[in-house]
Write a structure and sequence with these properties.
Blueprint (H helix, E strand, L loop, with lengths): L14 E3 L4 H8 L7 E5 L2 E6 L1 H9 L10 H4 L7 E2 L4 H11 L3 E6 L2 E7 H11 L10
Parallel strand pairs: 1-2, 4-5
Antiparallel strand pairs: 2-3, 5-6
Length: 136
């Protein structure tokens, strides 16, 4: 059985609606384990907001974080994977693009996030153990 991206993804990533504010994103990003907030418009991924985005698009420009909507500052995702992508292909894409995590979509809707470390672990679990060589 071929493992797919959907088999190894985290299915409930940190998201906010496009109408949420930069302040709401800042609260989420203040948690050390949250590196990015995925921004959706009714389930469709429209962008990503990071700490760097908040500094560049809100703080540096003097915008009010309580009224700046994420749709105005979210950066389009660099890359996404389809949920049906074979796990080996997904790993190749993550390695090739030097990405640690990538949003997973299905019919344009965000369904999860795939981590390179998890993919590596899953692929290692799937590899059959080599048969010991028997001397002739």
């Amino acid at each position: 059985m071929i493992m797919r991206a959907r088999d190894a993804m985290v299915s409930e990533p940190t998201t906010l609606e496009a109408s949420a504010t930069a302040q709401e994103a800042g609260v989420r990003l203040a948690q050390p384990e949250v590196r990015a907030v995925l921004v959706c418009d009714q389930g469709v991924l429209v962008g990503v907001v990071t700490r760097k985005t908040l500094v560049r698009e809100v703080v540096a420009l003097g915008r009010d974080p309580r009224s700046t909507e994420l749709r105005a500052i979210a950066e389009p995702p660099i890359f996404t994977l389809d949920a049906d992508t074979a796990l080996e292909q997904a790993f190749h894409e993550l390695e090739e693009r030097d990405l640690e995590r990538v949003p997973v979509v299905e019919d344009g809707r965000l369904v999860g996030v795939l981590s390179r470390a998890v993919v590596q672990r899953r692929l290692a679990e799937e590899e059959p153990l080599a048969e010991p060589e028997v001397p002739a």
